[in-house]
Specification:
The protein is α/β, with parallel strands linked by helices. It has one domain: Alkaline Phosphatase, subunit A (3-Layer(aba) Sandwich). About 30% of the residues lie in helices and about 10% in strands. Strands 1, 2, 3, 4, 5, 6, 7, 8 and 9 form a nine-stranded mixed sheet that branches. The chain is globular and about 50 Å long. The chain starts with a helix and ends in a 16-residue tail after the last helix.
Length: about 375
């Protein structure tokens, strides 16, 4: 099935796009912006993952292409597109994202506040290249992701990890007891449990340090948040502030709106896909508009996994990802940036674990505990 999906994607993408083929944590004291410094004139990397995959039927298949105009028409022709990225691990969003970040299939409880067992790409990056704390950041949904910046591995760990920002926790902390219906749509934490909302462990000092770091006042933050329609828009707003204020070399953002599919509302699921499509284009526009990033940033876009098919008796179609069938495990990845070939489709199956070794090969650091392989098409 996966092979047939790859062939189908190749055919319709070539015809459609003319392709040529082939927690919130306290800000670390002493963080200094890297913008404009000679030491910052190095390659940049932006990784965008979707916590909550989308099926071909609603995206790259002919009947779903209207939902992804930016990915299909603006971004895909600029890069190399992998049609078959297979996830052989646990299909839970935190554990799957942790696996993407370590290059090894993690086995931790998806809903536990646990760090990855294997070193993360952020630890490899900072330790091997001697990069400072402000040069690697994660912006993520708040359900458990506060531990994703570093592992429990005895040879690596927190001293080499990424700083983690959780925008929903930031907003909850900023609002405090004043949280109201105006922000309820931004504080939804876990779509698999609709009654669960974000709870903040951040202190007032944490919030102050983070706001100071981003040069963001409480009033400006809350006022801007009120104008947004989803948590992912809030995350992209924070990513932009990070780019403007610190210009980190390694920036990872996890989008989560698509996972509203767990509510069972197909229209909301499509809205999540369309919004994610738009936000990916906005992130690339931010890269292209910023002199610190333009011309030296590689962007990787990939879902953590797919969703169930409509014909599997053990699943719930678009709503869940429980069966482990080909549709729930097979997804895609788009890579664009300097040195990446444009208008190229890669039909061969690759593993989702291949991301970390590929990042290491492009940026020049080793990934000794990663299980994936370097993707030669983009490394």
């Amino acid at each position: 099935m996966a092979a047939r999906q790859g062939l189908a994607r190749r055919d319709f993408l070539r015809s459609a796009a003319g392709l040529a083929g082939a927690g919130m944590i306290a800000a670390t004291p002493g963080l200094r912006p890297l913008r404009g410094l000679e030491t910052s004139r190095r390659p940049k990397t932006l990784v965008v993952t979707f916590g909550g995959g989308a099926r071909d039927e609603e995206t790259f298949a002919p009947e779903g292409q209207e939902n992804i105009p930016h990915l299909l028409n603006d971004l895909l022709p600029r890069g190399t597109f992998f049609t078959q990225v297979v996830n052989h691990g646990i299909l839970g969003h935190y554990v799957a994202t942790a696996s993407l970040a370590t290059g090894a299939y993690e086995t931790l409880n998806n809903f536990a506040l646990a760090a990855p067992q294997n070193p993360t790409v952020f630890e490899y990056f900072r330790r091997d290249l001697g990069r400072p704390a402000q040069d690697a950041w994660v912006v993520a949904p708040s359900n458990g992701f506060n531990r994703i910046g570093s592992s429990d591995h005895r040879k690596y760990g927190e001293p080499w990890g990424a700083e983690v920002l959780l925008p929903k926790q930031m907003l909850a902390a900023a609002m405090g007891a004043k949280s109201s219906l105006d922000y309820e749509h931004l504080l939804q934490d876990n779509y698999e449990s609709p009654l669960t909302v974000s709870t903040s462990t951040a202190t007032a000092e944490d919030l102050y340090r983070t706001a100071e770091l981003l040069k963001l006042s409480y009033s400006d933050f809350s006022a801007h948040a009120k104008s947004l329609s989803s948590p992912d828009e809030l995350s992209v707003f924070i990513v932009h502030r990070l780019m403007q204020q610190l210009a980190p070399s390694l920036l990872w953002v996890t989008l989560h709106d698509i996972d509203i599919a767990h509510s069972g509302a197909f229209s909301l699921y499509l809205d999540g896909i369309r919004r994610s499509d738009r936000l990916c284009a906005e992130l690339w526009s931010m890269v292209e508009a910023d002199p610190e990033y333009k011309g030296r940033t590689t962007m990787y876009i990939l879902p953590d996994f797919g969703r169930d098919s409509d014909v599997d008796a053990g699943g719930n179609g678009f709503q869940h990802h429980r069966t482990g069938d080909a549709l729930s495990r097979t997804t895609w990845m788009l890579v664009l940036g300097p040195g990446v070939r444009q208008n190229v489709i890669v039909d061969r199956p690759v593993d989702s674990l291949d991301l970390v070794p590929t990042l290491g090969a492009r940026l020049g650091f080793s990934t000794p505990f990663a299980r994936g392989r370097v993707l030669s098409e983009v490394a």
